[in-house]
């Protein structure tokens, strides 16, 4: 038996989709439009358990929890080395677990919307500026606004590009 007990199990499912369009006369890979989507689901069944703790025992009933989520994003390479994108994410905990769902803020419906702008100074690097809007019950005031800046650098050999 594992952490879910002798008769417990966890199953994880997933699927993804990727589509990219480039016109016949594209130079250096630009312009382009790509669409990517991924969905995942987790089914978690935990066995009943009694766990001794100091002078008493904690009893836990068997539970079944289902969680799932997805993201979908569009990316537009609008000029050589420049890309703009928009991403939407959704996740939820559907079914009651150890606590009723409405009392467990970490299993609430969550939404994130993220526009971004990226510049590639070379084929080995990328600068990215991204804004995130998050909507979830566990956040203070139920929502959050953040701005992220990132630098990616590739070291070493990499496969040749097919433009």
Q: Explain this structure to me?
A:
The mean pLDDT is 85. With 163 residues, the chain is mainly beta. The radius of gyration is 22 Å and the shape is elongated. Helices cover 0% and strands 63% of the residues. The strands form two sheets. It has a seven-stranded antiparallel beta sheet with strand order 1-2-5-6-7-8-9, with no helix packed on it. Strands 3-4 form a two-stranded antiparallel sheet. Strand 8 and strand 9 (143-153) form a beta hairpin. The chain contains no helices and nine strands. The protein has strands at residues 9-21, 32-46, 49-53, 56-60, 63-79, 82-94, 110-122, 125-135, 143-153.
What overall geometry do the principal axes of the alpha carbons give?
Answer: elongated
Q: Determine the number of helices (DSSP H or I, runs of at least 4 residues).
A: 0
**What distance separates the N and C termini?**
51 Å
Oligomer classification? single chain
Low-pLDDT parts are none
- Proportion of beta-strand residues: over 45%
């Amino acid at each position: 038996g594992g952490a879910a007990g002798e008769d417990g199990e966890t199953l994880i499912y997933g699927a993804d989709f990727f589509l990219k369009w480039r016109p016949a006369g594209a130079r250096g890979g630009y312009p382009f439009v790509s669409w990517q989507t991924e969905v995942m689901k987790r089914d978690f069944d935990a066995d009943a358990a009694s766990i001794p703790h100091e002078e008493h025992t904690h009893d836990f009933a068997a539970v079944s929890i289902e969680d799932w989520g997805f993201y979908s994003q569009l990316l537009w390479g609008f000029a050589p080395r420049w890309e703009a994108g928009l991403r939407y994410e959704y996740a939820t905990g559907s079914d009651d677990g150890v606590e009723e769902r409405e009392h467990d803020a970490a299993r609430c419906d969550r939404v994130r919307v993220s526009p971004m702008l990226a510049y590639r100074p070379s084929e080995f690097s990328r600068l990215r500026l991204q804004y995130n809007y998050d909507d979830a019950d566990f956040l203070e005031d139920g929502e959050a606004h953040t701005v992220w800046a990132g630098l990616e650098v590739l070291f070493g050999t990499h496969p040749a590009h097919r433009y």
